[in-house]
Amino acid sequence: MSPALQHYSTSVASHSCTKKAILSFLLVPFLFCFGIAQDTTQISNIKGDTAVKINRGLVSLNTGSQPFYPFNKKRVKLITAANVVGYGGVMVGLYATWYKNYPQSKFHVFNDLREWKQLDKMGHAYSAYAAGKASMELWRWTGMERKKRIWIGGMSGAVYQTVIEVLDGFSSEWGWSWGDIGANFIGSGLLIAQELAWNEQRIQFKWSFHRKSYIDGSLNIRSDNVFGKTTPERFLKDYNGQTYWLSTNLRSFFPHSKLPQWLQVSVGTGVEGLFGANENIDKDKDGNIKFYRPDIKRYRQWYLAPDIDLTRIKTSKKGIKVALMILNILKFPTPSLEYSNGNVKFNWFHF
């Protein structure tokens, strides 16, 4: 790989993944708050395959303990408008602040599957899952037929990000990434498969972050250059501080046990020592070394930790319910057991 390409791949992976993360984190709270906070009528915690006539409409009630709503055409129009306005606004802002400042090219493909130890792909899967989950809950609120709601809402996250991937394909600074597309559909697939099988999310995709600071000042400077200086920038771009989790609700699999309904067990993954996409070396277009730290080991981390399903906390307050649902896409801070570099260690507090 030439020096120019080394520099190019480092910037591409970081910036491309950031756009998807920005989109997801803007859409999720907007979609949740817009729809769920307006709830006025619901039928909850009804088990079994039942059909009930409500307000002259037919509502199919499926196995599970999710809330059910009568079909409402006005709500369908409202949520359709919310998606168009919300997504359209984000896309306009993204284009104005991003794409118009970079040169365009013919549609092309960029292979970034080996970069950042694939943690950026975890970010894509997570973003598709989180945005799809928000959209699915909004369509549930409209009373839309179950399978239609699952497929339309569940695929939203992948579709949102695929549109951005197309724009990347026409940008000379980036390119269409099949790895990104695959990760997007994995995230949506995890959401849809569980809804179809169980009518609930027994295995939830979550995320956590802690800002990294190093004794070695040169690493802090490098992090500022690659991942950004501010906490919001690091929040989205610093892979060394991110952890992605799959949290399993044990009571869902063992309904007759005495386990707490809110208890979850989480398996997480992260990375350490990444100061470039493929290696800890960076050169400018003329081949001059800008950063050279091959001595820093790049490695994966695996975690095991308890977690809390915030949506299982009982409350009659609508605002609190919405807040708990939004916060549930984040991993609750707890101790963790870490396996990395061939060693096992205990972390007293992991976020």
Structure description:
The protein has 351 residues and is an alpha+beta fold. The chain has one domain. Helix content is 45%, strand content 19%. The protein contains 9 helices and 10 strands. It has a 6-stranded antiparallel β-sheet. A two-stranded antiparallel ribbon has the order 1-2. Strands 6-7 form a two-stranded antiparallel ribbon. Helix 1 (3-36) runs antiparallel to helix 4 and helix 3 (119-141) crosses helix 4. The longest helix has 34 residues, at 3-36. The radius of gyration is 22 Å and the shape is globular.
What distinguishing features does this structure have?
351 residues; 9 helices; 45% helix; globular; disordered N terminus
Radius of gyration: 22 Å
Spatial shape: globular
Class inferred from helices and paired strands = alpha+beta
Helix content: 40-55%
- Give the rounded overall mean pLDDT: 82
By oligomeric state, this entry counts as: single chain
Elements, N to C (H/E):
HEEHHHHEHHEHEEEEHEE
Structure summary, number of beta strands: 10
Q: Strand order across the biggest sheet? A: 3-4-5-8-9-10
**β-sheet strand percentage:** 15-25%
Span between N and C termini? 36 Å
The low-confidence parts are 1-13, 32-64
Largest sheet: 6 strands, antiparallel
Number of domains: 1
The number of helical segments is: 9
